[in-house]
Amino acid sequence: MEPIETDLNTILAKSTHDEKINDRFSEFLSRLDSEALDLEIFRLEKIVTPQINCTDCGNCCKSLMVNINEEEADKASVFLNQSREEFDDLYIEKSEAGKMLINTIPCHFLKDNACSIYEVRFEGCREFPALHLPYFQKRLFTVFMHYSRCPIIFNVMEELKEVVGFDSTQ
Ligand code: SF4
Ligand code: SF4
After folding, report:
1. Fewer CB within 10 Å of terminal CB in the chain, N or C?
2. Which residues are registered as beta bridge partners of 93?
3. Ligand 2 site: residues with CB under 6 angstroms?
4. Cα 86 to the chain's mean position, in Å?
5. How far apart are CA 86 and CA 72, in angstroms?
6. Mean pLDDT in each 10-residue stretch from start to end of the chain (170 residues)?
7. 79 Cβ neighbours under 8 A, 6+ residues apart
8. Relative to the alpha carbon of 60, which ligand is closest?
């Protein structure tokens, strides 16, 4: 296995440089057996994730829009000792369709590169980067959207190229 890359500038530069290669890689992955691919991603995720310290990175919390639901907002407001009204006024933006988003990027709750409401963080935060979930093939678009942002995704995908014998040079 190649050494783990965690430098965000290096990852971003490689992502820009390899954009066409990754388009081809995404197409290549879409033709593989879905269940076998999931198993390989699970295996690589278990190897890569323990080697990356998310509190040294925090890049998802600095750059992603965070969706939340009513139950999560209730829990977070209790955790912060605020009324729901205060919580909503301070942190929430609501769409006309009633969807709720955290109203700033980076997220309000990122403090010293760590989540200050970790115990009650939202489902989307818990799941990201979602490489432990099945049906990876259906999420190829979002995986490659986050490839330049998340060192876990970046390293898993680079290792996957080796494992599945993808030829980057053609
Ligand atoms: S709630 Fe916590 S984990 Fe979620 S984006 Fe904000 S800082 Fe990150
Ligand atoms: S999940 Fe990815 S982007 Fe988020 S902090 Fe961890 S390594 Fe960084």
Report:
1. C
2. 101
3. 52, 54, 57-60, 128-129, 149-152
4. 29
5. 15
6. 93 97 97 97 98 95 95 98 97 90 96 95 96 97 97 98 89
7. 117, 119, 120
8. 2
| Residue spans per domain, the chain | 8-55+130-163, 65-127
Ligand 1 nearest atom to the CA of residue 64, by list position:
5
Q: What is the pLDDT of residue 150?
A: 98
Substitution candidate for ligand 1 out of 91, 122, 126, 127 with most atoms within 8 A of CB: 122
- Say which DSSP state 157 is in: H
Quote the longest CA-to-CA distance of the chain.
58
**Ligand 2: which of 110, 146, 150 to mutate, most ligand atoms within 8 Å of CB?**
150
Give residue ranges with CB within 6 A of ligand 1. Answer: 61, 66, 107, 109-110, 115, 117, 121-122, 125
Helix (H) or strand (E) holding 92: strand 92-94
Cβ partners under 8 Å of residue 147, min gap 6: 15, 22, 153, 154, 157
| pLDDT at residue 160, rounded to an integer | 97
